[in-house]
Each structure stands twice: as structure tokens, then as C-alpha cells.
Amino acid sequence: DAKTTQPTSMDCAEGRAANLPCNHSTISGNEYVYWYRQIHSQGPQYIIHGLKNNETNEMASLIITEDRKSSTLILPHATLRDTAVYYCIVRAGGGSNYKLTFGKGTLLTVNP
Amino acid sequence: NAGVTQTPKFQVLKTGQSMTLQCAQDMNHEYMSWYRQDPGMGLRLIHYSVGAGITDQGEVPNGYNVSRSTTEDFPLRLLSAAPSQTSVYFCATLDRTNYGYTFGSGTRLTVV
């Protein structure tokens, strides 16, 4: 699976959009971009994933650049409960590769 | 629908003791896995299973055993606990419709 690079930490004001970047310049054509988050002391929570098109669900939006070398997770109206470590993970979809490799992620702190 | 249930939530062991961390799921997911998370580090894969009767080693399997006799259960056994196994352990299942993982709430293990 391709390696990802994320900032160590970010701050965001409550009610504003939080934009979390991720670089994955070595991504292959069959690899998806996944985002998870881990709120303190809890298990990681799936947020969203995409291949090349932008995706949106009830939690967030995922914007993937046209060359797929980077992506941005957008939380449109951040709340204090969104304070968490956010992990960007690239992995091949399908087949027998089920492993998920977590890096250090980005600690997002939402401030009142 | 409970998702992924881990028991116990907390455990203190003495060096050399054995124990089993339980993981049960009610989503009929074939893939299950165990991760450990140490302070300041990402999650590391211990063992995984792609279905009943099939298990395989992950990144850090030493000191741990697993078995998968049913789809629902995937217990993790520590045969002789060591202080280096002090960690938070997470069980996760994979939904193959979107390749999203569901994590349990974790077991905090301290070996003294």
C-alpha cells in the first residue's frame, strides 16, 4: 500500500470547516483513499473513502486531486466532538488485501 | 445490532499469566483482525482471519495466538503475559461491500 503524509496537528474553530490534507504521491491506480478518525480512548471510526471521484456522506466530504497524489477531508461545520486523530490510509481495494496500515495521523483540535 | 463487542474493557495481569481477550461481532463479516496501540504509535496488526477456520499473522504476532471457530468470534490469547504487551487492543471487522472497518471499543491491558 502507498505511503501517506499528513500534518502532525491542526486547529480549527468550532463551526468552521476543517480541511485535513493528505499526500499520497505513490498511489497506484487500484488503490483507494480511506479516512478514519480516533476519538480519545475509543476505537477508530470509518469516515469515508474514494477512488478518484469526490465523495460526500453525512460525516464529511473527500476531495481527491485529478492526479490522485493528494486528497483533503472536509468536515463542513466542525464541532468540539470532532476533536480526534484523523488517519488517511491508502490501500488496494478488493482481492485478498484486507490489511489496514495506520500511520501517526493528524490530531485535529476544534476550539470553542 | 451491537457491532463489535470486546471484553473485558480493562485487565491487569501479572507477568507470566495467561488470558483471552474476547471479540464478538453480529454483522456476519468474514474478515476479523486484532490490533494493538501503544502510546504515541499507530495501530499495529497482530493477527487476522479471512473466515472461520483461517487465521494468519500480522505485523506483530509474537506472544499471541488466535483461532476462528465461528464467524462471530475471534479471541486473542496471551499465553504468558509480558510487560511489553501492556497496550490497548482493538478488534476490527471488515465490511466487504465498502471495505470499511468497524472497530470495537478496545481492551486496556496492563501487565505488571
Please describe what this structure looks like:
The complex is a heterodimer of chains A (112) and B (112). By secondary structure, chain A is mainly beta. Helices cover 0% and strands 46% of the residues of chain A. Chain A is built from no helices and nine strands. Chain A has strands at 9-13, 18-23, 31-38, 45-50, 55-56, 61-64, 70-75, 84-92, 106-111. In chain A, the strands form two sheets. Chain A has a five-stranded mixed sheet, with no helix packed on it. In chain A, strands 2-7-6-5 form a four-stranded antiparallel sheet, with no helix packed on it. Chain A is globular. The N and C termini of chain A lie far apart (37 Å). Chain B has 112 residues and is mainly beta. Chain B contains no helices and eleven strands. Chain B has strands spanning 4-7, 10-13, 19-25, 31-37, 43-51, 54-57, 64-66, 76-78, 87-95, 100-103, 107-111. In chain B, strands 2, 4, 5, 6, 9, 10 and 11 form a seven-stranded mixed sheet that branches. Chain B has a four-stranded antiparallel sheet with strand order 1-3-8-7, with no helix packed on it. In chain B, strand 9 (87-95) and strand 10 (100-103) form a beta hairpin. The radius of gyration of chain B is 13 Å and the shape is globular. The mean pLDDT of chain B is 93.
Topology:
The complex is a heterodimer of chains A (112) and B (112).
Chain A: E1 9-13, E2 18-23, E3 31-38, E4 45-50, E5 55-56, E6 61-64, E7 70-75, E8 84-92, E9 106-111
Parallel strand pairs in A: 1-9
Antiparallel strand pairs in A: 2-7, 3-4, 3-8, 5-6, 6-7, 8-9
Chain B: E1 4-7, E2 10-13, E3 19-25, E4 31-37, E5 43-51, E6 54-57, E7 64-66, E8 76-78, E9 87-95, E10 100-103, E11 107-111
Parallel strand pairs in B: 2-11
Antiparallel strand pairs in B: 1-3, 3-8, 4-5, 4-9, 5-6, 7-8, 9-10, 9-11
Name a few traits of the molecule:
heterodimer; A: 112 residues; mainly beta; 5-stranded mixed sheet; 4-stranded antiparallel sheet; 0% helix; B: 112 residues
